[in-house]
Amino acid sequence: MQILLISGISGSGKSVALNVIEDAGFYCVDNLPPSLLIELLSTLQAEGVNNVAIAIDSRSIQQLQSMPANIQKLRAAGHELKVLFLTASSETLIARFSETRRSHPLSHHLQQQQFTCQPLSLTECIAKERELLEPLQFLGHVIDTSYLSANTLRNWIKDEIGVEQAPLILMFESFAFKVGVPLDIDFVFDVRILPNPHYDHALRPLTGRDQAVIDFLEAQPMAQDLYTDIRRFIEKWLPSFKHDNRSYLTIGIGCTGGQHRSVYMVEKLAKHFQQTEKVLIRHRQTH
User: Fold this and answer.
1) Where does ATP bind (predicted)?
2) What rounded mean pLDDT belongs to the chain?
């Protein structure tokens, strides 16, 4: 079994790391009490789960001392186990907590343990957390996220676990402006400026996938110019969206009724990009 143990200082990016690992196909568990670690892994192994990621943090104060022994036991049993420990400077952590306006997750636990009604300061919580997690810090690879963007951290985590970037799915979606712009669209292109096949009685009952409508629009120089402009825009910016770790990029093409011009343009663009990209096609107003 491949096991990833993720720990570190609160605010250093454990949630970002866990999300990346989950997207890579790992069975993920957040904030597991260390006393349940061996039992959980035995259960998952019996169920045929091969890749597991578990986040353990300082809230399990009383049980953290058992972690080094548990890690040694799992490695001795033949499991492939890696520990990732995320940290950051105190100044960075204070800034991040200030931005989110959240309290430190350890503050309530420490307050209860010390039997005091006085809240602990953020600086005190960070210092105590470093002390509690120090034994785990030296059991694995330490990543300092002080000056890392979330996107850079995602890429570093992927490198750590040997996961390649999943291919971006490029979705082309036609729709009718008279119904409204769908909420899932990243870019909207308006093709209502093109001649409308709707006004040709022979073409009205057809869609942009029918050859007669295709021939009508192919004969319009404006349609070809607009297609070229949209295609070049996507080709120029698509690499940037891939670099940004996007899973989907949805291109919306709208016309009045979502039946002729937008459908034609979606089909034409999709046919071009299918040569190099993973493409999905959706038509909202046709079946």
Assistant:
1) 8-15
2) 88
